[in-house]
Amino acid sequence: MTHGSKFLMGCFTAVFTLAALTLVPLQAVSAAEAGPAAVVNGTAISRDAFDRQMNGVRQSLVQSGRLLNDVQLRDVKKRVLEGLIDREVLYQAAAAKGFKGDSKAVEDRLADLRGRFDTQEAYTKALKTMNLTEDILRRELTQNSAIEQFIDKELSKGISVSDAEAEAFYKERHELFERPERVHARHILAAVAPDAPESEKKAAREKIAEAQKRLQKGDDFATVASEMSDCPSREKGGDLGFFGRGQMVKPFEKAAFALKPGQTSDVVETQFGYHLIQVMEKKPAETVPFAKVKETIAEHLKKEKVKKVVEDFVSKTKTQAKIERTPVDEL
């Protein structure tokens, strides 16, 4: 799948899913129309729209290795359908208040999307594969934008988070702000599989030995990594960034955390092959001060408040709406 196709599917995710299940990006082959999946105040939610969402959910489950039994699948269908109904309720409320979406932002997003494909033909083909047209995509993005405007300017009005609320969250969830010891390292890898023939392992050992000789002669680590490493990090001179314990395989972790900044390891063998590791920086375990995370906490708490307001609004509005649902066993 191309990068453009992945982005295209991401564009089509529903703005809010107020059921417990978060809807995933759409990806589907079109299904024949067999009547609407639901009707909200006279506006139909097409079976195609439902099928696109369900196919996205199925693909996500397959990729995660999860299989659903019939009872679980039925429950997922119910949640997907309610998510689509929730979105339609929000859009109708937004339209009633005069929100039309930001057309310029939508067109900019579509232009960005087109630019992610090598040709117009590839773009059109990707849309067709997902049973979409640009007009459908434009309509959905515009509706999403209108919903966002409605939530930002109407439902979120007056919602704020005090310093006291933010500090209380910081104290109650202090474990979220504890950073373990971390190292910033780079490496050179001579890749070879654990079950590779001895001849391949010998070649990998010779390669890492040659890299080690260059380092011992004083060659720059990043230069040697960019020229000899088999890891994609070679594009950054072997730089792996900061990592904590448990993020790397054990032999690699043990060697990296044993080094002092500026030191380079001897050859380290892992399931990926042979490594030379250089630690650039170490940071001890610490608790992030409240002042550094106050704004992030406040933003999180505000989003939670807005989410609750939206959920309550949709729940109340649905009780006053005329909603017809196709039984999920027929979807």
From TrEMBL:
Keyword annotations: Isomerase, Rotamase, Signal
One Pfam family matching this protein: SurA_N_3
Signal peptide (UniProt feature, chain positions): 1-19
Gene Ontology molecular function: peptidyl-prolyl cis-trans isomerase activity
Domain called PpiC: residue spans: 180-281
Full protein name: Peptidyl-prolyl cis-trans isomerase C
